[in-house]
Amino acid sequence: MSIIGAIVIGFFAGLIAKFLMPGRDPGGFIITIILGIVGAFVATWIGQTIGWYHDGEAAGFIGAVVGSIIILVIYRMIAGRRR
């Protein structure tokens, strides 16, 4: 259930991250959603490493949004250089 929960939370976190960081993304809406899902997994992993979450527990919504914003910033920096 943790993986499915992280995907669902990541989907919505990607939407919120796109809303909080408007602008032209090199990949568009779908890439932003995928980055949101990746951000949720990163937030879950970091939270479990630090001890905020137990094994099998997904990151909370705010953590997933923060993780999504971090991943989106990194993606924009990398994709912006390729242009």
Mind explaining what this structure looks like?
- The protein has helices at 2-20, 29-50, 61-82.
- By secondary structure, it is an all-alpha fold.
- The protein has one domain.
- Helix 1 crosses helix 2, helix 1 (2-20) packs across helix 3 and helix 2 crosses helix 3 (61-82).
- The model has no long low-confidence stretch (mean pLDDT 76).
Give the strand tally: 0
Cα-atom Rg, whole angstroms? 13 Å
Sketch the topology as an H/E string, one letter per element: HHH
Strand percentage, roughly?
under 5%
**Helix count from the secondary structure assignment:** 3
Determine the fraction of residues in helical runs and give it as a percent range: over 70%
Structural class: mainly alpha
Mean pLDDT metric: 76
**Termini distance?**
39 Å
Compute the number of structural domains: 1
The biggest sheet amounts to: none
Shape: elongated
